[in-house]
Amino acid sequence: MAFELPKLPYAYTALEPYYDAQTLEIHYSKHHNTYTVNFNKAVDAAGLEGKTAEEILTSLDSVPADKKTALVNHGGGFWNHSFLWESLAPNAGGEAKGNLGSAIKAKWGSFAAFQEVFSAKAVGHFGSGWAWLVVNQKGELEIMDTHDQVCPLTLGLKPLMVIDVWEHAYYLKFKNVRPDWVKSWWNIVNWDKAEERFNAISG
């Protein structure tokens, strides 16, 4: 079965004023849709029909070299964006609570300290890419970034939340001022979803 563009879990206007409707609509219906279409083509070319995106992205070493780049780029683009939409929510933001909130404070000393480090990683990322909060291979929380559409699953990591710092993700509203996008993004982080992911990994 071919991969399909997942349904956006909220209206285009739902994340206003922090994420404008025009950018969200273009980002989802144009960029994400294009990755979805091209991922299907890459899957067909590699003979990987019937596998999940997660299965494909975690076994790229077994893919022929001439098929791998398309799967990294378009498979990562498909999965990363699907993950992104669920990582955002209206009436969200604030501080992480629950088990994840406790783990963040244990690792960085305070939520504010974590926020500062994460923001610096997102703002400082050179070029196109993403900043992530993940559980690493040691089972510890880690802030990291990936370039272009590299997916943390391919690196053996388990992502909890993410910000897209490709310019197309924010340019219409924030122009070239990425720090303003990062500051705004904190108001729409879906910590409930991040907590659910963390508990599923930890449990």
What does this molecule look like?
- This protein is mainly α.
- The chain folds into 2 domains: 21-87, Fe,Mn superoxide dismutase (SOD) domain (Helix Hairpins, Orthogonal Bundle), CATH 1.10.287; 98-202, 3-Layer(bab) Sandwich (minor pseudopilin epsh fold), CATH 3.55.40.
- The protein has 8 helices and 3 strands.
- The chain has a 3-stranded antiparallel β-sheet with strand order 2-1-3.
- A hairpin with a 5-residue loop joins strand 1 (129-135) and strand 2 (141-147).
- Helix 1 runs antiparallel to helix 3 and helix 4 packs across helix 8 (191-202).
Sheet of most strands: 3 strands, antiparallel
- Model regions low in confidence, pLDDT < 50 over at least 5 residues: none
Task: Tell me the CATH architecture of the largest domain.
Answer: 3-Layer(bab) Sandwich
Number of domains: 2
Q: What is the approximate shape?
A: globular
Q: How many E-type strands?
A: 3
* Rg over alpha carbons: 17 Å
Distance between the termini: 31 Å
The count of helical stretches stands at: 8
How would you name the CATH homologous superfamily of the largest domain?
Iron/manganese superoxide dismutase, C-terminal domain
Secondary-structure element order, N to C: HHHHHEEEHHH
The average pLDDT score comes to 97
The strands making up the biggest β-sheet line up spatially as 2-1-3
Structural class: mainly alpha
- Percentage of residues in helical conformation: 40-55%
Per CATH, the class of the largest domain reads: Alpha Beta
User: How would you describe the oligomerization state of the chains in this entry?
Assistant: single chain
Fill in the CATH topology of the largest domain. Answer: minor pseudopilin epsh fold
Portion in beta strands:
5-15%
